[in-house]
UniProtKB/TrEMBL annotation:
Gene3D superfamilies: Cytochrome P450. This is Cytochrome P450. It is a single-pass membrane protein. One of its GO terms (cellular component) is membrane. One of its GO terms (molecular function) is iron ion binding. Its main location: membrane. It comes from Tetrapyrgos nigripes. Belongs to the cytochrome P450 family. It is found in: Membrane.
Length: 131
């Protein structure tokens, strides 16, 4: 079990770890002033996704019994996992109802932030289903 903010095992030397490096080095007084908003929003989004959906290996991966390599990251400046097959399903019908209700009850608020002259009739069938 981990008991520290970096999620590493106990006993690992964390003296050089920084969890805000992505927001700039802080040299010359420049560091991202939006970092707390960004981090909090990200945490909320991840928590909501984990609350609502079940993430599992896709059917083919399950049938083959292969394991997804969680250390397979893309190379380059943006450090992120390489694409992998995955199944994402709502945890329950009750959670689907909550999401749909919340979506329709907040749509009128968020419509104010829509850009351009796009109207609901301009959306495709799948998008309209949510309006
Ligand atoms: C994951 C999301 C974000 C990342 C990775 C990020 C990253 C960065 C980085 C690397 C810089 C440059 C720092 C430097 O010059 O050394 C920066 C600057 C800045 N960021 Fe962010 N940022 C994020 C979200 C946000 C948000 C949500 C806001 C505002 C609400 C914001 C506002 C700013 C501003 C105003 C600057 C310019 C600061 C200056 O020049 O003094 N950022 N950000």
């Amino acid at each position: 079990m981990t008991q520290n903010k970096f999620g590493v095992k106990l006993g690992v030397d964390m003296s050089h770890f920084r969890n805000n490096i992505v927001f700039g080095s802080g040299r010359d007084q420049r560091i991202c002033p939006g970092q707390h908003l960004a981090n909090t929003s990200l945490a909320l989004n991840v928590m909501n996704l984990l609350w609502a959906f079940e993430f599992t290996p896709d059917e083919t991966t399950q049938k083959k019994g292969t394991k997804i390599d969680i250390w397979n990251y893309q190379k380059g400046g943006f450090y992120m996992p390489a694409p992998f097959p995955c199944s994402i399903k709502p945890c329950s019908a009750a959670k689907v109802s909550i999401i749909e209700e919340q979506f329709s009850s907040t749509s009128s608020l968020f419509e104010n932030f829509e850009s351009g002259d796009l109207e609901i009739k301009d959306l495709d069938d799948h998008e309209q289903m949510w309006m």
